Amino acid sequence: MKVFVTGATGFLGSYLTKELLRQGHEVSALKRANSSLLLLGDAAKQVQWHEGDITDILSLEEAMEGAEQVYHAAALLAFGGNSLDKMLKINVEGTANVVNVALSQGVQKLLYVSSITALGKNKDNRAIDESNDWESAPMESQYGHTKYLGELEIWRGIAEGLNAVIINPSTILGAGRWAEGSIQIFHQVAKGVPFYPTGSNGFVDVRDVVQAAIQIMERAETAGERYIINGYNLTFKDLMTQIANQLGQKPPTIPVTDFWKTISIGYDTLRSLLTGSEAIITREVLNISSHPYTYNDNKLRETLGFSYLPFEQTVNETIAKYKQSLAENKDYGVLGA
Question: Which CATH class is domain 2-176+203-231+294-311?
Fold first, then answer.
């Protein structure tokens, strides 16, 4: 099977690409001239690379030519700050480009990697499932909104005859670039963090997302559907405590109240101004992490009979890779390598 992957050099995309190659697929992918291939390791040599990105329609058309299946995993993740325009460009316009090229080239099936943040939240704090509708609200993230708009492009493609499916992974955990994305939490807890957000969220092993995505792609009855992929619902305190215990650090004990939110935002804004880097601790991040989000993935379990790796295995194996990275003076790690 000829498969095209967007975001193949990223966290999820690299694991997905390696598994597709392991299963014997012929994989082509886009990358920028300065993209790092470290997460792919030796598998990078097996990929047919095309230089460009999803916002460049000409490079996308060339790269996708001949593809029978498309996994669209490329996205820009940012919370607050000044990244909205970039996210709209990549997450919405880029997705529209992928849909249009898939339609024009007769791709057999497209899988779009969305996010649980595109599902919004329930006002009564019930578990969110695939039927949840996005509603703009102060608690929602700019990233989630752009992924929701990206989903609208997928639904538009389906209406125009595209065979497509959407997956909504929860917060993805595993080994990767320790200073990026959701797995920063391992790096932060390793340094010793006394504070914990008071909310909860869904979490899932990156390897589970890969296995679920491929199984969903291969099943005919998944066309035109969406699936939440969520291994476990946890409070941030429980997650950080588990990580801290495995790292030999003191677990966090101080909840992030409104007072500490203000202090944290002020400190990080000052750090951002002095260093010229983007703020990490934004009001958006703190608001989201204080909300009790939970997710219901019964649809995936019932459709595929899918089961997840145990949470303890994900944490233990990720921390083992984190420690190995420190010993080898690397800023990344890869599970199974």
Answer: alpha beta
